[in-house]
Amino acid sequence: MSDGKIIATGYSNIGGATAFTLVRYNSNGIVDTTFGKKGITTSTINNSTGNANYCSLLQTDGKIILGGDYYNGSSFAFAVLRYNANG
Q1: Measured between alpha carbons, how far is residue 29 from residues 23, 25, 33, 57, 85 in Å?
Q2: What is the pTM of this model?
């Protein structure tokens, strides 16, 4: 990011289910607690137990796009999520 902050994206296990996950760090490596909830944002689609992020993109306006998949009850489907700059 132009302000030196770092955004890490991926997925995490929350209570046995996976969720799309973003964490933002300040340039000194400390979690930026002004982002999301205490520096972390997690999302699931339709309460799916299988959500996985495979790619991310930072737009010029600071919004964050994640691409991946989620389990729709019978198979995995493609997913795209967009977040505001503040998580």
Answers
A1: 11, 5, 12, 20, 18
A2: 0.85
